[in-house]
Request: fold
Amino acid sequence: MFTSFSTALSALAAHSTAIDVVGNNLANLNTPGFKSSVVSFHDLVTQSLGAGLGDTQVGFGVGTPITLREFSQGAIQTTGGTLDAAVQGDGFFVIQGPGGGTEYTRGGNFQVDKDGNLTTATGESVQGWTQINGNLDTNAPPGNISVPVGTVQPPVVTKNISFDINLNAAATAEVKAGTFATSVTIYDSLGNSHIVTATFTKNATAGQWDYSVSLPDADLQNPPFTPLTGSITFDANGNLTTPAAADPAPQLDIQGLADGASDLTISWDLFNGKTPRISQYAQPSSISAVTQDGSPAAQLVRVALADAGQILAQFSNGEQTVVGQLAMATIRNPESLIAVGNNNYQLSARSALPAVGLPGTGGRGSVKGGAVEASTVDIAQQFTNLIVYQRGYEANSKVVSAVDELSQTTINLIK
Reply:
């Protein structure tokens, strides 16, 4: 009978622990990436009474409950946060803990600190790869991700231009329709823009046009500008034959710019591979596309985390550049991880070694930008568990009261 005290007390302690677990789950109902825990009860070894053959067995109560964290998928909630990220599938974000050790998290509400480092909401550095000198090497060991802040992107000098044009086959050298002009904006080494104009004039030879590619004299230190001139020839089917695809592209040389920028040498691409960009058909002369590969200097507008864990920098000229990449780790037995607070986990002695790589590879889940993974706490289930554990606590407290009364009765027999 007196073992009932310890049996009931073990149950009170176990149910108290279970209620603590429920309380922690409910407290983290809105914690991004939080994984709820479940309580696993187990009985203590039994004792056999009488001959010891197991006819009468009395247990010693319940052991300290085992808490198991369930790493099920949480709902993906769109937040609109530019640096928020959610894991869809297996895997963890890799972070550097306060002591310098490696930790793991599913919480993707990231931010940037004063030094430009990508961190979790509680200040731990997020691990991955950062672009260095224009190179993003994801084969190197991951490290802290540095996000560019207030960066000025240098200008890109124009080296190639092209025009996709149809020249009117019905045009003649004697009428205005025999002249067609178009232009393209190019950029020098200082990021200043210049207008290059290409003028096409039908000459007396059938299927032949003269061209002149020029720059305004005002853009030069010592005008006038000497234009690039020449002729192009089409066959009876309106296809460009001269120059041929194998011939060197015409070169536009620009020297002595008034703004002091470096001299320019620009190739005029008449072919897209082996396909001519200029044709001659009986339609009004018109341009369908114009390209050039330069750009002005640009300010960093914003940095955002895109799908696949890529960190994109957007500049004022509209260009987007990948400046970083999140690392992701998979662990075969994530339930063995130890929670260390701040929604982070560490490896335990029972944990398999993590495999770190790019999201979406090697069995790792994908990353959704502008979203976070919601907590997996089911409020209805937690309230149900709370009622069950409360009833279990109350029932075992009745056992303590009953055993106490029996003890008092036994003591009174002696008197």
The mean pLDDT is 91. Residues 379-414 form the longest helix (36 residues). Helices lie at 3-27, 379-414. The first strand starts at residue 37 and ends at 40.
